[in-house]
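Catalogue entry: protein
Contents: sequence, fold tokens
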Amino acid sequence: VGLAGCDKSIPAMLMAAARLNLPSVFVYNGSILPGVHKGKNIDITTVFEAVGACAAGTMSRDEVDEIERAACPGEGACGGMFTANTMSSIAEAMGMSLPGTASPPAIDARRDADARRAGEAVVNLLRLGIMPRDIMTKKAFENAIAIVNALGGSTNAVLHLLALANEAGVKLSLDDFNRIAAKVPHIADTKPGGRYHMTDIDRIGGVPVVMKHLLDEGLFHGDVMTCTGKTMAENLADLNPPTPDNDVIRTVRAPIHAEGGINILSGSLAPNGAVVKVAGLSHDQKSFEGTARVFDGEDGAMAAIMAGDIAPGTVLVIRYEGPKGGPGMREMLAITGALKGAGRGADCALITDGR
């Protein structure tokens, strides 16, 4: 039984299971509850946006302090559809975790029951002789990509799924992501681009709501084996989740974006491919033209934002943040949050060799 609860540890547990290929079940620790500030739910990205707003002179330092103190009220992974919740949803969509276990918060009493059920499930897998590579098939990876696109999940899923596929001996490429994104629309109104947190998905029935809806629409494989010893279709039939509520989760007939939440681009700047988060764009942001401003690292770009030195129509190019340059391919989450808070979220663009 693999137990993890954050961005890198979840894919690491799944990779270990694929490499060892011994009966395995993944258990997610759960995500944090949203904080509350002035009657509104907030999270860690609210802090980044507040820093940008403060720099732009539209928020006081005292209010930034209030938001910082309220944003993380307890234990658990970041509460939006960031990397941890994306990867926990992937684990469930691939059949490596028990149905309905991706969405309950860390403090929820269901977590104790989930852990016990996982222990029972792994013994059953041993009895049946079902190994992780029997579960993590090409179809299971296609289900994982489908759930990422439907939920508007993290672009980090591309890196992690490619690495996981390598461990599982499954051929997966960037072309698979675009092929599935062309069919599976973005239907979950989740943070950071949308309005809701993982607790809201849990409130309306959890990730199975999305999986069952995609299955019914012919966009999800139901014949794949899972850690219950049953197929995905059998699990969903037993669980019988509700239909989408048309608020937190929309339908594929009335999606937020007609295409999936992530897309792969290629061109002169990235001949081997680049990832764009469509779920974070407004409907009219299909293209962007502006003046490039190049920064050699995140710190210089952040300093310019804090100084109010980023004009509308700027394309921020942050280089030397890749696997070698960062080192470690750091996330530019603070940059995107600060840009949005400073009022530059819609009239500027960001390109980086980081994440």
Summary: Residues 2-32+78-239 form one domain. The first strand starts at residue 2 and ends at 4.
